[in-house]
Amino acid sequence: MLTGNYLHDYPKVTRIEIIGKERDLVRYGCEDVRVSLQDDGRTLKVFYGWDSEDEAALVELVKKRIAEDGPTTRVTIDELSNL
């Protein structure tokens, strides 16, 4: 099993579904889908719709927040929405 920050691209994927006993999440029209397996294989993260400019803006925001608040800083959803 691959663990750590392994990231895999799925360039053809346009729909994401999370299914438990029902469809908990459905997103259509997705682009740039990537999956990351983290925390020794205990966490699966799905990223979509982020291009390189978004990623660069996020990196700069996190660097700024770490400089202001230290390494345990958190970035809010509102801050991400404003990228």
Give a structural overview.
- The protein has 83 residues and is α+β, with helices and mostly antiparallel strands.
- It has two domains: 1-49, no CATH class; 50-83, no CATH class.
- It has two helices and five strands.
- It has helices at 52-69, 77-81; strands at 6-10, 15-19, 23-28, 33-38, 43-47.
- The strands form two sheets. The protein has a three-stranded antiparallel sheet with strand order 1-4-5, with no helix packed on it. Strands 2-3 form a two-stranded antiparallel sheet.
- The model has no long low-confidence stretch (mean pLDDT 79).
**Total helical segments:** 2
SSE class: alpha+beta
The termini sit apart by 34 Å
Uncertain stretches: none
Quaternary: single chain
Order of helices and strands: EEEEEHH
How are the strands ordered across the major sheet?
1-4-5
Q: Radius of gyration, Cα only, in angstroms?
A: 15 Å
User: What's the domain count?
Assistant: 2
The main pleated sheet reads as: 3 strands, antiparallel
Give the percentage of residues in beta strands.
25-35%
Number of DSSP strand runs: 5
Kindly state the percentage of residues in helix: 25-40%
Give the overall form: globular
Query: Kindly state the mean pLDDT as a whole number?
Result: 79
Task: Describe what is shown at a glance.
The chain is 28% helix and 33% strand. The chain has helices at 52-69, 77-81; strands at 6-10, 15-19, 23-28, 33-38, 43-47. By secondary structure, it is of the alpha+beta class.
